[in-house]
Design brief:
Strand content of chain B: under 5%
Number of helices of chain B: 20
Largest sheet of chain A: none
Oligomer: heterodimer
Largest sheet of chain B: 2 strands, parallel
Shape of chain A: rod-shaped
Order of helices and strands of chain B: HHHHHHHHHHHHHHHHHHEEHH
Strand content of chain A: under 5%
Structural class of chain A: mainly alpha
Distance between the termini of chain B: 39 Å
Order of helices and strands of chain A: HH
Helix content of chain A: 55-70%
Distance between the termini of chain A: 11 Å
Radius of gyration of chain B: 23 Å
Helix content of chain B: over 70%
Number of helices of chain A: 2
Chain lengths: ~70, ~575
Amino acid sequence: MNLDLRLPIGLMFTIDGLLLVGYGLVSDPAIYARSLGTNVNLWWGVVLLAFGIGMLWPAVRAARRPPDSGR
Amino acid sequence: MRLIQLGAIDYTILIVYFAFVIGIGWALRRYVRSSEDFFLSGRSIPSWIAGLAFLSANLGAQEVIGMAASGAKYGMMTSHFYWVGAIPAMVFVGIFMMPFYYGSRARSVPEYLRLRFDEKTRGLNAITFAVMTVFSSGISMYALAKLLELVLGWNFHTSVILSAIIVLAYIFLGGLTSAIYNEVLQFFLIVLGFLPLVLLGLKDVGGWSGLSAKLVPVATNAGYPAGAWSESWRNLGSSASNPMGVEWFGMVMGLGFVLSFGYWCTDFLVIQRAMAAESMTAARRTPIFAAFPKMVFPFLVIVPGMIAIALHTSRGGFLPLGSDGTPNYNLAVPVLLGHYLPSGLLGLGLTALMASFMSGMAGNVTAFNTVWTYDIYQSYIRPGQTDRHYLRMGHAATVFGIAASVAAAYATTRFNNIMDMLQLVFAFVNAPLFATFLLGMFWRRSTGHGAFFGLLIGTAAAAIHHGLTLPRGAMAGLKGGFLGTVLQVYPSEMAQNFWTAIVAWTACFLATIVISLATPRHKTDNELSGLVYSLTPRQRDEHLVWYRRPSALAVVALACTVLLNIIFW
């Protein structure tokens, strides 16, 4: 394949995850009243970050390998 | 009324998404060298990507909004669209139909019809498909822009133009590959964007048991058995005991067999994704892979609607009321977004909504430009040109297709009834199609005349059935009964639709058989090899590990679906 799709997907969710974690840390706790008292930005940001890195990591490893030793 | 206020963080997430969609198109632009690259991704897509795109192309905003609305209006019975309709149909198309679609090297569904039957059957299918695709893309564009105007206060024109330009940019640059790659990105975004909403909603109402308990008054207030909103099969014994107004036979035959099989097995919008797969086995696995995420989608798209109606009844006035005094079910998802998600996650949820809209629209546009270029332009307008010429036409058709969708969206704002009427006509055209494909693929004696006139008769039968029946309480007109006499009154519009489909399918099936027997065969067994089941070598997949075998995956998918039906019986 020409472009490893895991790269852009991983990158976008990593960025979104970082944005949400960052915002979750600095935002006013009062806004979490509506999400039943949970800081959902922080927690869901961690989920997105984990998903993003989980996509990114194997893609980067595959790209580093010499092309003929792959699948 | 503005339901949702967005902050800077929300806009940032939305902009990151836009940047990535266009970036993917930009990165793929240098791989588009031939028309086959542009329209069929050079047949090089692995099955997990094709499978997620298969799912995502169908997952337009209307699906997300509409399924939640049905979840609120009809409850758990809406799951039949998935667990009776979509999943068995997706397994069927993967196991039985893909060998013909992929194996014949047809580049589109209409082209298969030409190989199997004749030119006129292809022409009929290509032209109706091209027109319907543009209009449905326009109608969903209209629906999304209206929604954004209502809940965010965004300008209608800005929404239409902005989404059109973004979709245009990434398809123009990277063709079908770009649409497919973006659909996979959009798939993950839709799942990860809506999941927190479902989790928070369920936590709020006390889990599934709390939700079921809160849905009891919804059902009893409307005069149905207590479990009508939380059970899927128990109340299907009679059409009077459930809000959908259907009984099990109409549901299984109309929705399951005719409508769902008709959609998933013949609609080029989804089939195109599997045709782009890298091998026959990958093409067959595409819809079966897609079946697995599809079977858990009810929890993502139907349950939010059920939560919304439960809260509406138990806490009062959760959903805004429409002009007729009933809750506005279409607002279930946006209202929940605004209710549970704080700034930040709200941006993600809204981006997911935009993503679902764009994947649906891109699906329409890529299917349109292929059918237009190969089946209409190359066949009837300018045959025998160079591949370069058709690639250029593909680019032009993308621009034209999107411009026509925008025009259709604006036409909808001015003539709402015309759109309702068009949707009705499309339903008449689509209902009989599955009978034609079934006979074409499994009965070598069926002929081109049989297929062509069978389709026309099926469409006419649908129109006549609709014209002679009415849903309860409706006025004669677009809802039916326009032929003067009303022979049958159905408990609901949905029941009427299911029976229209059953009548159309049966008429097409019988007419195709009779006309085929009355007309001479025009294709020899040799010519039909690879196009008809009995004349095509069986697909062998025993050499693969079991989890890579389409047949084994199909059995697992069906078993899981049966289990889900039993759990939520």
